[in-house]
Amino acid sequence: MTIWKSFINFILPPRCALCGHIMKIDKGICDSCIANIEFLKPPVCYHCGHPLGEVTSQSNKHLLCGHCLKNKRHNFRFVRSAFAYDELSKKMILDFKFYDRTDLANLLAKMLYIAGEDIFKSGVDMIIPVPLHYTRLIKRKYNQSSLLAKELGKLSGITVDNFSLRKIRRTKPQVECNGSARLKNLKGAFSVKYPDKIKGKRILLIDDVLTTGSTLKECCVTLKRAGAKSVDGLTVSRVLR
Is the dihedral of CA 87, 88, 89, 90 positive or negative? Predict the structure, then answer.
């Protein structure tokens, strides 16, 4: 296999997923691009994971953003993301999601594993990807969140459940909706097929991009109604507000 892989790399040398430059070692992203990615590092909001920038006190581990301070009710235990969704990372996410760059799943899952460190330390019983409606799955050929969950399951040793959470209603793409229309678009779109598998479990939801959080929130509410003990959200990238 090593000889065969070397031969393939000689004929089709690995290229950086962001800039397209040829790399000697297939790392997915070259060192130059890695240095320019805006990874979301602490301090971040204790609940939603939004970057807090400079803070006066580093000793408080439970710092909250303005939004979470105003809203005392938190559906999620924690939400975390690996890096910011910007012009640099956008190409990689879109290639992975729409243009068959499924080879990026392993690399992105490693980033998720690092970004979700405090989630894993707090305890996770099951990993669940945000599902696609079957019509969209047939059209796209794969669920990018499911691929991420599979690789993350290998890294963490945690069971991945691809079947309990289902999308039962076809909705408009979220990019076509704004504000409250995003929540309305997803209302009642998800259901739990096997509640016995969910009851009492600490669930980790996986998705590729967090924009307003509407998709994750609707999935979270659905899982909690089915008896989940807690729900965390972990995404590859995040649109910063």
Answer: positive
pLDDT digits (tens, 9 = 90+) for 193-222: 999 999 999 999 999 999 989 999 999 999
For 157, left (φ over 0), alpha (ψ -120 to 50), or beta? left
Domain ranges of the chain: 1-33, 69-238
**Residue reference for tokens 């099951």:** 126
Write down the pTM of the prediction.
Answer: 0.89
Structure tokens at 48: 């939603």
| Amino acid sitting at position 193 | K
What fold does the segment set 69-238 form as a domain? Rossmann fold (3.40.50)
The two structure tokens encoding residue 164: 């309990």
Give the per-residue pLDDT at 57: 53
Residue with the bigger pLDDT between 64 and 72: it is 64
